[in-house]
Amino acid sequence: MKKSNSNAIFDTIATVIAQKPSGTNAYTLTFECPEIAEAAQPIQFVNIAPVPLTAEGSPGPALDMLLRRPLGFSQVRPEQGRFDVIYQVVGRGTQAMADFKPGDRVRILGPLGMPLTADMIKAQTVILVGGGLGLPPLYDLAPELIKAGKEVIVIAGARAENLLIMDTQQCKLKRPLPDIGETTGFKPFVELGADCVITLDTPAEGFLSGLVTEPLNKYLEQDFDGGLEIIACGPPIMMKVIAQIARDRGVKCRLIMEARMGCGLGACQACVCKTTDGYKRVCTEGPVFDAEDIVWE
Amino acid sequence: MKKSNSNAIFDTIATVIAQKPSGTNAYTLTFECPEIAEAAQPIQFVNIAPVPLTAEGSPGPALDMLLRRPLGFSQVRPEQGRFDVIYQVVGRGTQAMADFKPGDRVRILGPLGMPLTADMIKAQTVILVGGGLGLPPLYDLAPELIKAGKEVIVIAGARAENLLIMDTQQCKLKRPLPDIGETTGFKPFVELGADCVITLDTPAEGFLSGLVTEPLNKYLEQDFDGGLEIIACGPPIMMKVIAQIARDRGVKCRLIMEARMGCGLGACQACVCKTTDGYKRVCTEGPVFDAEDIVWE
Amino acid sequence: MTENKKNDIAVTIAGIEMNTPLVMASGTFGYGFEVPRVADFRFEDVGAVVLKSVTLKPRTGNKPHRIAETPAGVLNSIGMQNPGVEYVAKYYFPMLKNLPTKFIANIAGESTDEYVEVARIIAESDAIEAIELNISCPNVKGGCAIGVNPQDAFALVSAVKAVCGKPVIVKLTPGVTDIKSIAESCIAAKADALSVGNTYTGMVIDTHTRRPVLGNNYGGLSGPAIRPLTVCNVHKVRQAIGDSAIPIIAFGGVSNASDAVEVMLAGASAVGVGTAVFTNAHICSEIADGLRAYLQSQNETNIADIVGTVKLN
Amino acid sequence: MTENKKNDIAVTIAGIEMNTPLVMASGTFGYGFEVPRVADFRFEDVGAVVLKSVTLKPRTGNKPHRIAETPAGVLNSIGMQNPGVEYVAKYYFPMLKNLPTKFIANIAGESTDEYVEVARIIAESDAIEAIELNISCPNVKGGCAIGVNPQDAFALVSAVKAVCGKPVIVKLTPGVTDIKSIAESCIAAKADALSVGNTYTGMVIDTHTRRPVLGNNYGGLSGPAIRPLTVCNVHKVRQAIGDSAIPIIAFGGVSNASDAVEVMLAGASAVGVGTAVFTNAHICSEIADGLRAYLQSQNETNIADIVGTVKLN
Ligand SMILES: Cc1cc2nc3c(=O)[nH]c(=O)nc-3n(C[C@H](O)[C@H](O)[C@H](O)COP(=O)(O)OP(=O)(O)OC[C@H]3O[C@@H](n4cnc5c(N)ncnc54)[C@H](O)[C@@H]3O)c2cc1C
Ligand SMILES: Cc1cc2nc3c(=O)[nH]c(=O)nc-3n(C[C@H](O)[C@H](O)[C@H](O)COP(=O)(O)OP(=O)(O)OC[C@H]3O[C@@H](n4cnc5c(N)ncnc54)[C@H](O)[C@@H]3O)c2cc1C
Ligand SMILES: Cc1cc2nc3c(=O)[nH]c(=O)nc-3n(C[C@H](O)[C@H](O)[C@H](O)COP(=O)(O)O)c2cc1C
Ligand SMILES: Cc1cc2nc3c(=O)[nH]c(=O)nc-3n(C[C@H](O)[C@H](O)[C@H](O)COP(=O)(O)O)c2cc1C
Ligand code: FES
Ligand code: FES
Known about the structure:
The complex is a heterotetramer, with two copies of chain A and two copies of chain C. By secondary structure, chain A is of the alpha/beta class. Chain A folds into three domains: 103 residues, Translation factors (Elongation Factor Tu (Ef-tu), domain 3, Beta Barrel), CATH 2.40.30; 124 residues, Rossmann fold, CATH 3.40.50; 41 residues, Ribbon (Dihydroorotate dehydrogenase B (pyrk subunit), domain 3). In chain A, strand 4 and strand 5 form a beta hairpin. Chain C has a single domain, classed as TIM Barrel. The longest helix of chain C is centred in the C-terminal third of the chain and has 15 residues. Chains C and D meet through strand 11, strand 13, strand 14, helix 6 and helix 7 of C and strand 11, strand 13, helix 6 and helix 7 of D. One flavin mononucleotide (FMN) sits at the interface of chains C and B. One flavin mononucleotide sits at the interface of chains D and A.
């Protein structure tokens, strides 16, 4: 990707350009918002009001849902002044967002959080592990890594085939797994040149089945001369297990953490996650944390 | 008009068919709702949720505006299962309603209030006085009166020409006013065969100017052999003055009163207006009251 | 539903057998017959109706406006308009006889004597299962003063219990420093149940006219806005009085099945529904259906089993 | 704006000259520098910033979740996470020096001694104009107990006043039976201003897990939901203490200019803005613009002239 190195954050009004279903109960939203699109860096996120402004710009009936919803960038196109987020409908806010229509104007805060850029990663190979909606932010990061000449392996987990949020295609693995030289991967990652495997809780033809930790463990048995790092994003339980695996194997691991947010700006101390150095703010010190530093509760 | 004589009230979901501007800052909304359209009688009204249901039928972000807004029927077409309301944007609720789009599903309660039907009116001539958005309910009543063979005179007041909520056309008065044999009237009333004069606060060519009380007083100097009755709907200050004029002249006068509502069903006692017999509920004993009975505060 | 013995959301509160735990709140459901005028109203989903507060003498009520909308809430100052207990007992109670739900009368007054006198009259009616003492109305003098003072509450409840054979429910005011101490004195005075929650005193001002929107200046805040406060008060009172003490009926801000479950998890055995009726006259049936679905999703068979089962963090 | 002497929304509260009556509420605006990281932040529209509560010793705060959404409101239980007064005074206060607004420190503690000690340290800083005593935080033991008792409040305020040359503002808890008596004892103890309002104790339960959403189980309710209660409390306190008494800063539920006008008409000389910052970091500028427009629409030249001008019905 990118672009201006300023740390500017904008609290501004973005325009909905498009909204498309991405699998079941999930959507890809495209916003036009040049300032944020230009400032955004990988793994950063935006906080999005779940109800659009009324025609007059007043929050309208949005008083009922005051907090903005944090969503990671799934793709940023600064040259178009646009970016995408992919989200799943899980509660009232994301449900309301599913009603967003092109032309809607939405109050939005970002880019938020500390970026994770290729130069911050020493290892030559990076395994990106995404569970469910943990995948989109990794898709924002992957091109950056590949551009920097790194080997990228994506392990994506989902509950079932109908929940997959991106298009799939056959992926001939450059680094095959035992018995698996070819499998179904996410098209966007495959096209970037990454290896991509998908494991499903509910088995389906052409996909691996089971937990993401199974292919992960198999990869970890291989040799990575240039060093290996794991970056994971997904449900806490998944990340906890991966953190343990990484620690056991002595592999560097970063986690993209979630927390309920108030201000998004580091002011309210709401969005904390427990670390060995006390509670840290996901919106400011995060969202990326060293797996070693996280204290699981 | 109508139709079933049942007193049924429905709390149901109506579908928005169309929304069109009616003058400045006012709209005509068409709903499809067969049960209410069939039960509605003149001068009754509906209480409308100002925010549509979400796709799933939950009130969505509507928790912020809990009370439904009372609006009079402006036209009911039972054979189509549809009815219209005309409303002005005055606050947050009507502002939100201006965002209603065809297909929106809206929770709606009605028909409410005691009907006023032609057989309840003894006089042969009825002067309908409508100030601003007091007009639509009178438009629902007029055909009924005309069908019953009554002479109908409409005096409509508005602040300025651009605020007129219905189309206008030339009206050759069957019962001319001094110096005025022809003037601009509202097309729907003229087409029904009623006399219609429009007075504006801000003078404009082709219209009378001044308060509605001026043409009213002039009419009241004429003879009405079959008896005369005034029915007025509009801002309280207008209705108070008309009540006084009617009392002075000994003319029967009914007023369509407004009040802030809770339940709409007579349960909460919120929507009262003061009468010589204590506080009465607009939603149940009203909205029509005998001008003699109203205690002005 | 009434005939269906497997009805898993039926509850019994203070001896009153109710089809559902849903109690229509006083003042929002009139004298029981107004709201059910809507077509297809399902009375079987209503556990009980608490009638509009009655007083000894007729009251004209406050001047309008009597209601205002606030963010996720409603402010009201009806001012206890009612035709007096004799009129209500004579003309309204008989209309309730054959309706398939239970009725609770709610009484208010400016002195203990007044409460006692009204309770005595109501206690004679077959139509009424229990009496709710409104000691928490912000819209009338007297009632509120009793509701904020444990000694006064004790005296009032004792006096009413002495004349009234029917169960006595005390409706506590939530806007106090220590709701637990008042709850405890009501229990000491042998109250049969506690209604935890009522409106909170609030004010809305029209910035153009610089006048309060309500004719009475102040009013009582109800609706979803106050629900988190209700959940907390119910939990606090339940913790203070213990699980085996008298039942709690929660009032304040319940507008859907999830809200109803929340207050029950916090410790309420029944759930008041007030302002939500203004948004949907069928709300009680929607909530009842939602409660049934919740039980199924949680593999529970009886709604009573979830009462107070919140697990603290 | 600061240079413009015709600035008609400037106010002076307890000797603090503020560009606007808008005060960023403690806990929602961090230590003053976080929110203004947003591009185009207009500090000139901020009358004053109340910093996050500090305590004598560092506090780790409560376990997550620390925030939950409620209808038109927010429930929080941050639990006073802060690095302690020494750290804050050493590292954060110097960052505030040249910013074009005024800063008020907010202190909390579990005993009078603790408050006094913190006040003494803060009183030494040039960056701070005044001290706000948080005697109303539902998320920490001690503070709240002081806030509900007039004698305790009197003792605390007197003790702090004795060691602190700067103006002392007392932030009252709204969830009490009689806020007026506490206000009066603070005035007797020579408080320089009253912050009327804070959060109300509430609870939200996840019905699926049956656990409270907040790690701390209970939290404090803020946001538009409570605004009618704030307006009422401000009006009650203003009526009780009289127009010529110390100024009131209103806290609770202000999210737009109309809300700000409402609390000022009710009797507040300045207006806290907290939760609304979460919805829009520029909210303060929007409200300031709205206040200027309001003055114009009402033919008033100075915002101070509208304070307490509500005309009761
Ligand atoms: C840094 C970050 C990046 C994220 N990126 C994505 C993404 O790209 N795609 C995606 O689908 N989801 C993402 N999430 C999770 C997403 O924020 C939540 O699913 C969403 O906020 C739920 O809102 P709701 O109103 O539907 O749920 P509700 O449960 O109704 O929300 C209630 C409140 O809790 C908050 N909340 C609920 N779940 C979460 C959660 N998991 N994390 C944080 N806050 C939560 C909401 O924001 C809201 O304030 C991300 C979260 C964080 C912190
Ligand atoms: C029986 C009846 C029939 C009506 N018919 C019409 C009609 O045909 N066309 C039309 O434009 N208006 C009509 N009105 C007035 C209409 O109800 C109000 O303009 C509307 O409720 C304003 O809502 P709001 O949210 O925009 O205003 P807000 O001021 O934001 O509303 C706040 C609250 O006050 C209530 N309220 C505000 N003004 C009025 C009012 N004048 N009367 C009753 N409640 C009010 C609202 O319903 C809401 O509960 C009628 C009122 C009544 C009582
Ligand atoms: C319009 C209105 C009138 C009310 N009248 C009474 C009353 O007469 N007596 C009473 O005890 N409570 C009265 N209440 C309070 C309700 O019974 C209930 O306790 C309160 O509204 C909180 O519940 P809710 O949020 O579900 O409405 C009234 C509430 C409203 C909104
Ligand atoms: C996340 C959060 C943290 C808060 N922390 C504090 C605090 O540390 N000290 C304090 O006095 N008030 C604190 N408050 C209360 C606010 O200062 C304010 O009084 C309250 O939120 C009501 O105002 P509002 O509705 O505008 O938010 C906090 C409020 C929120 C929402
Ligand atoms: S959300 Fe406020 S500090 Fe992170
Ligand atoms: S609105 Fe409830 S009685 Fe009329």
